[in-house]
Amino acid sequence: MKFLSNYATQELSNSKKKMKLLTYQTKDTEPRLGFIHNNQVIDMEDFGEISNFPLPTSMLELIDMGFEIIDELNSMIADTEPAFFEEIAYEMDEIIFLAPIPKPRKNIIGIGLNYTEHVAESARTLDTSNELPQSPIIFSKPPTTVTATNTNIILNPKLTQQLDWEVELAVVIGKKGKYVPKADAMDYVFGYTVINDISARDCRRSGQWIVSKGQDTFAPMGPVLVTKDEISNPYDLNLSLKVNGVEKQNSNTKFMLFNISDLIEDLSTVFTIEPGDIIATGTPSGVGAGRNPQEWLWDGDVVEATVEGIGTITNTVKSI
Mean pLDDT across the chain, nearest whole number? Predict the structure, then answer.
């Protein structure tokens, strides 16, 4: 597991509001909530028991507790003797990473054509405009699209012969908001994760994207959810994607047309944003549809999507 070997060299800071969270399971447990500490996975509920502070078993329950819970957790960690952690810790290779939010309450909010070069490549090969969008292009992916790292992306050849990849930074909302001004938008961000916005390019219907974007397993997510302050500048993150070890995408979030604050302001004008909402902020150039000749994903292909500061999700295409 490449992510684990790279991840094991990183240390979790005990600074206020910083934390790397995950949903995981072992061969003996149902899905559980945990956090990374000293390169080990600490079970959240068990940590609450030894700290005499009830803590949740799911990511959505934790987000519902508000931003203050991250400060409280970091204070508790700092006050806990190392020996107590050993009683509730797992080594990285003892657990299975699940998607940080395995079943979102609502559809994932997708943003289309949010990088300049991706607008250009889409216009060359798909039925999209070559003009830069004047406002965010919004679509959605059902909760059933979510899958974890080290799982299969399902290819149904009866539906598509044009399966494509899109690495994206995903934003997780932490509090309810309506008509959020841009200046306040980042106050609504709980954290970040990685999403691979898998797309069936030949399944678009009269300009509508949900059939193309919304098939089961079309939103690999993870491997962790990092809280907002883990990322000092979300507008300077490298993001990349490989297929069978060959790099296909390599860019940086500084090239977004609409940044995170723009998106939150716009989306909250359209509908109320709520804790646990997920915004996939768009992909840079290098997708299969934009290449010459075009390239598609097929049975057995291995896809690795990486965002700096968060990690890598790896998935294998499985034809059914």
Answer: 91
